[in-house]
Amino acid sequence: MTHDVRHLLANNSSAHLNDGIAVLTESRAAYWVKNEKVYAANGIAMIYSPKIGKSPVDIDFDSVEAAVKGGL
After folding, report:
1. How many angstroms separate the CA atoms of 6 and 70, rounded?
2. 56: number of Cβ within 10 Å
3. Phi and psi (nearest 5°) for 17?
4. Interatomic CA distance for residues 44 and 35, integer angstroms
5. Are 23 and 12 in contact (CB under 8 A)?
């Protein structure tokens, strides 16, 4: 696991989602990690991390938040 992925997971709320890991920051940036690659799941994450790719359409802020809060 890369340092960036470990740091993201260690310092934020996370949960399993669609064969990956949903990550939600305190600033409401939503990320999805799969195969050690980080994807932005909402606009806030895209602003904070403009060089990463966008998550698949079925992985969005609502699904990330629901997974992290135990709704999925």
Report:
1. 21
2. 13
3. -155, 120
4. 22
5. yes
What is the predicted pLDDT for the residue at 16?
A: 96
Residue 37's closest CA among 70, 66, 60, 8? 8
Q: What is the pLDDT of residues 40-72, one digit of tens each?
A: 999 999 999 999 999 999 999 999 999 999 955
* Residues 72, 56: Cα–Cα separation, whole Å: 17
- Does an H or E element contain 15, and which? strand 13-17
Six-digit token string for 13: 């709320």
Question: If DSSP codes are grouped into helix, strand and coil, which group holds residue 18?
Answer: coil
The per-residue pLDDT for range 29-38, each reduced to its tens digit, is 999 999 989 9
Q: What is the mean pLDDT of the chain?
A: 91
Cα separation values, 2 from 61, 65, 70, Å: 24, 24, 26
